[in-house]
Amino acid sequence: MKRASTHPLLWVVALLTGLGLVGIRTVANAEGGTPPDTPEATAAPSTAPPAHRAAPLWRADPATGTKPFEGVETKPGQVTVVNDPAGRYGKTYALHTSGHKLDDATRVRVETRGQRTSGGPLRFAKEGDVFYIGWRSMWGPLPTKKGDWVTLWQLKDYGSGAATPPLSLRARGDGTVDLEYSDPKLRTTYLWHGALKLNSWHSFVVGLKISKDPAKGWVRLWHNGAAQKLAGGATQYRAATLRAGWVTDKWGVYRSDGVTGAATAYLNDAAVGRAYGDVAP
């Protein structure tokens, strides 16, 4: 009598082994895939509400007008709530200035200032604290001029010893926008620059470790969902992010006197939290 063939049994074993390997590879990819804060990861465009890991410390809700901000500075200008001109993100802040100077000593600006919470102003003042600031911006019209600057976002210092903002996002009339760092001795370093595309949404997240010591504080930046390499080639730059009594941030348009004409900055989904995922637009 012929012995029964073992080929079917071997085939079953091979099949189960293959499935096991597929499962192992799937788990490996799930646990070891590119995280959202690496330079290679780019968020796909989406109109769906973003998923957050935790509630942010602060979020600007256009339904409440300008109440979420500690203040607004309109010299001259106005901050209003409009429907997203691009038709993607619903109610949106519009910060508009006619561009006509109030007087010779006052530079044109229309900006929000700081964040107001139920517990009072949210200010960045404690050594070692880590914050992430996320938002969407769209600009247009936005006159620029080579050799002059327009500040679109800044981390501004307040209190005794206040001087040049430690960080500012600026357009300089060359078709780009850059992130500028000013150290405690007021020396400037350009950390990053990218294309300034008008009438199109840009998303940003700025990560900050608060410190007056440039060896302890740091800055990180994400643009359109991708971590950006900063000066020196790394995604994290050591910096003194705390100056004077405290720092807080401002959105809008603030510019040197050489730039003229009406300008509008749109702001959407602005938030402050303790982690990237809490505030990423």
Q: What would the keywords be for this entry?
A:
single chain; 281 residues; mainly beta; Jelly Rolls; 9-stranded antiparallel sheet; 7-stranded antiparallel sheet; 18 strands; disordered N terminus; lyase; lyase activity
Explain how this protein is built.
By secondary structure, the protein is mainly β. The chain has one domain: Jelly Rolls (Sandwich), CATH 2.60.120.200. Helices cover 11% and strands 39% of the residues. It has 2 helices and 18 strands. The chain has helices spanning 7-32, 276-279, and strands spanning 58-59, 71-75, 78-83, 91-97, 109-113, 115-117, 120-122, 130-139, 150-158, 167-171, 176-182, 188-195, 202-209, 218-223, 226-227, 237-238, 246-255, 263-273. Strands 1, 3, 4, 8, 13, 14, 15, 16 and 18 form a 9-stranded antiparallel β-sheet that branches. A 7-stranded antiparallel β-sheet has the order 2-5-17-9-10-11-12, with no helix packed on it. Strands 6-7 form a two-stranded antiparallel ribbon. Strand 6 (115-117) and strand 7 (120-122) form a beta hairpin. The termini are far apart. 35% of the residues are buried. Mean pLDDT is 86; it is low at 1-50.
Produce the secondary structure layout.
Elements: H1 7-32, E1 58-59, E2 71-75, E3 78-83, E4 91-97, E5 109-113, E6 115-117, E7 120-122, E8 130-139, E9 150-158, E10 167-171, E11 176-182, E12 188-195, E13 202-209, E14 218-223, E15 226-227, E16 237-238, E17 246-255, E18 263-273, H2 276-279
Antiparallel strand pairs: 1-18, 2-5, 3-4, 4-18, 5-17, 6-7, 8-13, 8-18, 9-10, 9-17, 10-11, 11-12, 13-14, 14-15, 14-16
Keywords: Lyase
Biased composition (Low complexity): 39-54
Region (Disordered): 30-54
